[in-house]
Amino acid sequence: MGRVGVLLLNLGGPDSLEDVRPFLFNLFADPEIIRIPFPWLQKPLAWLISTRRAKTSQDNYRQIGGGSPLRQITEAQAEVLETALQKELDQVSVYIGMRYWHPFTEEAIARIKQDGVEKLVILPLYPQFSISTSGSSFRLLERIWQQDPSLENLQYTVIPSWYQHPNYLRAMADLIAGELDKFENPDQVHIFFSAHGVPLSYVAEAGDPYQREIEDCTRLILNTLNRPNPHILAYQSRVGPVEWLKPYTEDALIELGQQGVQEIVVVPISFVSEHIETLQEIDIEYREIAEEAGIHHFGRVPALNTHPLFIQSLKELVIESLHSTPKQFAEVTRMEKRVKMYPQERWEWGLTTTAEVWNGRLAMLGFLALLLELISGNGPLHFVGLL
Ligand SMILES: C=CC1=C(C)c2cc3[nH]c(cc4nc(cc5[nH]c(cc1n2)c(C)c5CCC(=O)O)C(CCC(=O)O)=C4C)c(C)c3C=C
Ligand SMILES: [Fe+2]
Ligand SMILES: [Fe+2]
Fold first, then answer.
1. Which positions in this protein are listed as binding Fe(2+) (predicted)?
2. ipTM attached to this prediction
């Protein structure tokens, strides 16, 4: 079959406290993360938001040891997956491409070229698809392909999302059962699925299948678990002023407390590794909110990390995709997932005169807003809640 490469995609996280601000800049500079209708405003705004958010974010990373464990865990996953794949394929290497921090996706592609990979399987480490996660990484790769003619010879296939995979579901059910069984009456414990949120407009306007895939995923996990527990799904980690998917995790915790629920296990469901939102947000912030709401027994299901059944599911996904018709980036985002990526797809119709005039006017306004913000530390952006 020739030399096979597997490219694992993930978000990336700051390795140290100094990395936090530039990491946040990269994140907010991505139009799939903050959808600003004026591309020229993206970078100044990213600079502003990352500068303003850095301290709080650093405090959070400090609480989990001064950086994100994501790189180490992803490297461990890649290593175990590579060993498993080497039992099935002659020449195979696994690479890591992070979206906002080292090792960057661009670096991974450079290594893939250097190693002479002939067939590449692109596998996001997000079980469910969202414009803001896998979609953003696919968009970046599509651009890399467009700008580098030498990549034409590299055959690739994309795995869009894979939360239905039986071994992934078994791994999740196994971890949940393990946590439930620590309680005296395991069947009475509330199972609290906490998914990472996205702004409501992603789903309602841009057609992001994320919410549907999350709901479907929780249903499949519960079927696989096959226990009678009560359960709930809520969305965590909201940032900024706009409405996100509901119910919000903190509100759902308070409501459960009011209903007299005292025992829960929280299941992080949109991410396969431990990271700041499990170790800090769930284990520290949400635990405190739950405690105050009267939920005194708070368990948290560990992330999959290198769970053997999880690695097995990744291995099977890779092998299956090598034997199927290759899928291209554009096919996956526009045809299969049918999402509107942003802002490129709204701006492709070009700059009409009116749009240009408005661009000019808004540029002036934007800069005034930024200036005000910088001078007073409390300008209009703060007012609308973006900072
Ligand atoms: C499937 C998972 C994720 C979705 C969907 C997602 C959307 C999304 N995130 C932000 C803003 C931030 N995310 C941040 C960190 C972060 N996000 C995810 C996952 C998803 N994000 C992870 C795993 C991490 C942490 C990585 C790590 O360091 O361990 C951050 C930075 C941290 C902080 O300051 O809180 C921000 C900001 C938006 C706006 C968004 C959807 C549009
Ligand atoms: Fe995020
Ligand atoms: Fe967060």
1. 196, 277
2. 0.94
